[in-house]
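During the no-cost extension, the postdoctoral fellow (Dr. R.K.) reprocessed legacy sequence entries with the updated structure-token encoder. One reprocessed record is reproduced below for audit purposes.
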Amino acid sequence: MTWLQENWIVALIVLIVVVALVWWLAARRQPRDVVPPTVEAKPAKPLEPAKPDIVAAEPAFKKAPVAAPTPPPPAPEPAPAPAPQTEAPPPPAAAAPAGQADNLQLLKGVGPKLAKLLGDLGVTSFEQIAGWSDADIAAIDARLGNFSGRIARDNWVDQAGYLARRDKAGFEARYGALGGEL
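Re-encoded structure tokens follow.
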């Protein structure tokens, strides 16, 4: 009895849970309001299997005539092999200025790997890139490997023109935030 006096709250909660559980179980056993069907359903007739509309073709008794094989055309004369060209690295479009190299990562589409690759190719300034001709673009683009096509796709020459002129406002108006200091 002392336990009940000391833990009467726990006993009350257990009692409430037991009463709720008994009430819920008793409510489940009562029949629900079920509406009996008013129309008696008749079983449907079984469906007859569908008859195929496809008629089999008659077998061919004669083989179709086969055209005589044509003789193969004469082999063309082999073309003379072109002289092997030694792949000399094309020089950069313009010589790198003697001053400090520009941060090429300010160009949209140029990340750290591409900036390092451009540095290895001798491209270090915005002035160099801004001065590229179509031939220079083709020569550098051929050496960019997986990054080929980025020069034209990301408009590097135009971007570099703004950055070479130190036109931060013009660059940001056309290409968005610069992402660093000039």
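The chain has a mean pLDDT of 81. The helical segments are 2-6, 8-29, 112-120, 126-130, 134-142, 150-153, 156-164, 168-175. The remaining legacy entries will be reprocessed before the final report is submitted.
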